[in-house]
Amino acid sequence: MDEKILKAIVKEAMQEELEPMKNEIASMKNEIASIKQEMLTRVEVRAFATKEDLKAFATKEDLKAFATKEDLKAFATKEDLKAFATKEDLKAFATKEDLKAFATKEDFLNFEARMTSALENIREGVRISLFEVEQELREIKSKQRFYDFDYITKQNDALIKTLKDLYEEKTFIVHRIKELDERVTFIEQQSRT
User: pTM above 0.85?
Assistant: First the structure.
């Protein structure tokens, strides 16, 4: 079999295997970007008053314990209370209903499962492609014994170039897989906090 044909077959097979995976990865990147844009940050959530924060203020029951107007002068007046948030002020902030529109832990777990599946498909595709190339190379190696030295040298050079191209492509894919694994780990850590 001619090395150009072999190279073309291997390259075409790898591209067919990788194209859907590349599309899935691009789609996942878009989903992550979309989710990040819609999520409240920790700093934004910390700006809201909590139940514990509201316990520090005086209630009607607390005020009943005081007997005179003179005693009450030491506490907050209506003017003092105007500096604090009212129910009307709190309406501008997100409610529990508003937060339901954002991604849940289950959504992240489903996303992680899809990402893991895609990565496994990529790994399996690369492994199968490399196995097929290895078989072809063994077959070529066994046939090389019947050729003259110049032809064998030329064929070896072509195979080395093909293998180098495949190795570079494999290295690139492995690097991308590691990046995706790191991103998934980062998202998981962010979703847990």
Answer: no
